[in-house]
């Protein structure tokens, strides 16, 4: 069975349009559609606010560009209304107009929790029904999908009960946070993004493009969990998310905490998140076992320098530069020498 992962946010109208187009695509048999979380507005307040007021905030305006990076939010809203009408999304009102358009700036973290729980409890069919109900509520009915009571009622209408208690217990929160990190590490930057295997297309693509994606996507390379977590942590460090890297490394630290590669990644993440005590402790322990690791030696010197422990940093930086005279090593060594000489 092939799987289409749809990385999308429930407050992105292009996600709703993408869902309709996916439903129209000739995907063949044995294709599973799974919805994954993406946040276009991660700074949205816990309590929803009227969208009209929020759009006066340049921070919110900028966040909404993730729903369509090319168009301004105003241009995107005008265009998406026309496209939604062409896709027959919405209802005709009695006066001949159409009911369409979000009313609330909602934080969708809890909505993503409900969607994740729907898949866990009832598979892709139930999850798809819940996604449809939430999208319809947000864009057509003007409901506040950031409100837990509203979410629980919508989920129940779609066939998923017990969400009031589940949300209160925190069910699904860890899974959604983990998936958000996985998406970030995979380079997901637009809602919606469709992924099959190791191939992705961004945006609400036409049905024929989505059908071609399913037919021609490269199969995903299956990797052991340990390798996948290591690569994800490295990627998150590269995109300057050290706290995300540390969360990714948690299972590896629990099971393989003595592995030098794991410890070095953890030290980099500690350094990147300014946890300098933990970084130096981890690096010192690592260097007791692998004293010839010039990068670990250099990073320890940088950590001590950043902690204003320049005399302690100097011998480590000298050793690192002697073992591997990298320009960064030499520049850092000269900087610390100059600081001590002055």
From TrEMBL:
SUPFAM superfamilies per record: Thioredoxin-like, TPR-like
Pfam families: DSBA (PF01323), TPR_19 (PF14559)
Leader sequence segment: none
InterPro entries: DSBA-like_thioredoxin_dom, Thioredoxin-like_sf, TPR-like_helical_dom_sf
DSBA-like thioredoxin domain segment(s): 4-213
Origin superkingdom: Bacteria
Name of this chain's protein: DsbA family protein
